Amino acid sequence: MTVSALDALPPLRDVIARYQLMARKALGQHFLCDLNLTQRIADYAGDLTGCTVFEIGPGPGGLTRALLGTAATKVIVIEKDERCLGALADIKAASGDRLEVIVGDALKVDLTTLAAAPRAIVANLPYNVGTELLLNWLHQIDAYNSMTLMFQAEVADRLAAKPGSKAFGRLSVIAQFCCNVRRVMDLPAAAFTPPPKVNSAVVHLTPRTDRPSDIDIKLLEKVTMAAFGQRRKMLRSSLKPLGGEELLKRAGINPELRAENLSVTEFETLARLIKS
């Protein structure tokens, strides 16, 4: 019932015109209107059987439609822009009880309180809050089976960056400490309405099963904030408040290196020593 009813919905450009959903820069909105592309994003999320899937900023609902076509038990969308509610109501009417629409600011919502596990997040995130949302979710990473998220390409670069590269930084370390990070899809600016000034990319994140249990994300945040806060300085200087050369000696790390030269494992070692 639901799939055929969803297929009968009008094209997204018609929906945008009907509800006058001109994208707002203040909300970081860039709508992806190609349903083939939204379907590919849903496919990259993997097997969603039995999951409650959260989508942030669904807009006119292109990705929402694709997610309702999966084996997810339920899709919960959180939308701050009340102009989009009419379009989402049409999708809800076509999907029955499987779609729940929540009006609110995703930065203020603890998704884990809205549904029991298993959970997944699949979203084309608003550019202006995407990184902040991700960092919030990483603090509860074990609450989710996976996260399949679209960011500005620059943010995707940082998430998947390797040590020694220009893009490697705090976000790289924290994300890779928590997750296996895989960049799965690149999208040109022309794919969006209106086209942003930069390209975008989709990243698939799954919780690391080998993540050290004796340290947590807060310790990594403390170490990386010091190390990358003065990125061009040697570690002996940037980590001085946390122990400087003595700390680095105990960790077996050359104090003349810079933060971007360390591996995630070496940052884990530093965090472990600070904890002890």
Structural write-up:
The structure is a single chain. The protein has helices at 2-7, 12-18, 35-44, 62-68, 85-95, 130-138, 153-160, 170-178, 217-229, 235-238, 244-251, 264-275; strands spanning 31-32, 52-56, 74-79, 99-103, 119-124, 146-152, 179-187, 192-193, 200-207. The chain starts with a helix and ends with a helix. It folds into two domains: 2-207, Rossmann fold (3-Layer(aba) Sandwich), CATH 3.40.50.150; 217-275, rRNA adenine dimethylase, C-terminal domain (Helicase, Ruva Protein, domain 3), CATH 1.10.8. It is of the alpha/beta class. The protein is built from twelve helices and nine strands. Helix 3 packs across helix 4, helix 8 runs antiparallel to helix 9 and helix 8 (170-178) crosses helix 12. The longest helix has 13 residues, at 217-229. Helix content is 38%, strand content 18%. The strands form two sheets. Strands 4-3-2-5-6-9-7 form a seven-stranded mixed β-sheet, with helices on both faces.
Notable features of this structure?
single chain; 276 residues; alpha/beta; Rossmann fold; Helicase, Ruva Protein, domain 3; seven-stranded mixed beta sheet; two-stranded antiparallel sheet; 12 helices
Query: Architecture of the largest domain in CATH?
Result: 3-Layer(aba) Sandwich
Strand order of the largest sheet: 4-3-2-5-6-9-7
User: Could you describe the largest sheet, including whether it forms a barrel?
Assistant: 7 strands, mixed
Q: Going by CATH, what is the homologous superfamily of the largest domain? A: Vaccinia Virus protein VP39
Name the structural class: alpha/beta
Helicity level, as a percent range?
Answer: 25-40%
How many runs of DSSP E, i.e. beta strands?
A: 9
Assign the CATH class of the largest domain.
Alpha Beta
Rounded to the nearest angstrom, the distance between the terminal CA atoms is 58 Å
Low-confidence stretches: none
